[in-house]
Automatic annotation (TrEMBL):
Signal peptide: none
P/Homo B domain span: 102-241
Similarity annotation: Belongs to the peptidase S8 family.
Matching Gene3D superfamilies: Galactose-binding domain-like, Peptidase S8/S53 domain
Highest taxon of the lineage: Eukaryota
Record InterPro entries: Galactose-bd-like_sf, P_dom, Peptidase_S8/S53_dom, Peptidase_S8/S53_dom_sf, Peptidase_S8_Ser-AS
Catalytic reaction list: Release of protein hormones and neuropeptides from their precursors, generally by hydrolysis of -Lys-Arg-|- bonds
Leading EC class: hydrolase
Keyword terms, alphabetized: Cleavage on pair of basic residues, Hydrolase, Protease, Serine protease
Species the sequence originates in: Sinanodonta woodiana (Chinese pond mussel)
The protein's name: Neuroendocrine convertase 2
One biological process term in Gene Ontology: peptide hormone processing
GO molecular function per UniProt: serine-type endopeptidase activity
Enzyme Commission code(s) on record: 3.4.21.94
Length: 269
């Protein structure tokens, strides 16, 4: 079946029939979230994020360049660097919103800082690690992750060729900075820049976190040099399991059911 392209407004008093990207995704997401809030007016911004993670679907999304594949994090949630946790499912989100119960309190834990300078050049990778107990035994103790931030200071003769990955104690690798060919900065670099990932959602944060900083060859194959100065790891999440009181309808195909079982097994140890 042939569908006519959708015409809409564009920049500079023009019209377009190629409406796409975040310009299309953001209002679609806003509409889905509005439906969830209509079903349950007590939802907070955190509730919406949890519902997004739990009800999104992979469908047939894939990277045609075969660079970014779907993978599972340490809690069993499937994610992709390009597509996050998948396509929003409005029906599933509204259904879950109708029976959603309040989440446990969210805490913030500064897990550690590495301030040992390191130099690197094109093709080289430097690795720094932080060992953390995720503030265990304190008022900020975290056992179940939501957001992870890395505040990083690094400079390079061509900033756009810097690529960074963050690896969790449960061996989940998140690309927190990709190559950017048009980012030609060579003076400012990044100064305590807050990079963030949600790919560790529901993981246990205790153990060794690894930051990898790599200088990728650029379009001109010039040799770049860089200097890493410091990074601080900040964890955001809950002390208590987030879904223990949520109703999963015993649907063993749902993400909620699977994550609840993972957390129940961890609590039983």
């Amino acid at each position: 079946m042939y569908c006519l392209p959708q015409a809409t407004t564009d920049l500079y008093n023009n019209c377009t029939t190629t409406h796409s990207g975040t310009s299309a995704a953001a209002p679609e997401a806003a509409g889905v979230f509005a439906l969830a809030l209509e079903a349950n007016r007590n939802l907070t911004w955190r509730d919406i994020q949890h519902l997004t993670v739990l009800t999104s679907k992979r469908n047939r999304l894939f990277d045609p360049y075969l660079k970014h594949f779907w993978q599972y994090n340490g809690a069993g949630l499937e994610f992709n660097h390009l597509f996050g946790f998948g396509v929003l499912d409005a029906g599933a989100m509204v259904d879950q919103a109708n029976k959603w119960k309040p989440l446990p309190e969210r805490f913030h834990c500064t897990a550690g800082t590495v301030s040992t300078p390191g130099a690197f050049s094109t093709g080289e990778t430097i690795r720094m690690t932080i060992e953390t107990d995720a503030c265990k035994g304190t008022d900020a103790e975290i056992n179940y992750l939501e957001h992870v931030q890395a505040f990083i200071t690094v400079k390079s003769t061509y900033r756009g060729n810097i690529v960074m990955h963050l690896i969790s104690p449960m061996n989940t690798t998140s690309m927190i900075l990709s190559q950017r060919p048009n980012d030609d900065d060579h003076k400012n670099g990044f100064t305590r820049w807050p990079f963030m990932t949600t790919h560790n959602w529901c993981e246990n944060p205790r153990g060794t976190w690894t930051l990898e900083v790599t200088s990728i060859p650029g379009k001109n194959n010039d040799v770049d040099t860089g200097k890493f100065s410091e990074w601080t790891l900040v964890l955001h999440g809950t002390r208590d399991p987030p879904y223990v009181h949520q109703d999963d309808d015993d649907d063993n195909s749902s993400k909620l059911y699977k994550i609840k079982r993972v957390h129940e097994k961890a609590m039983a140890k």
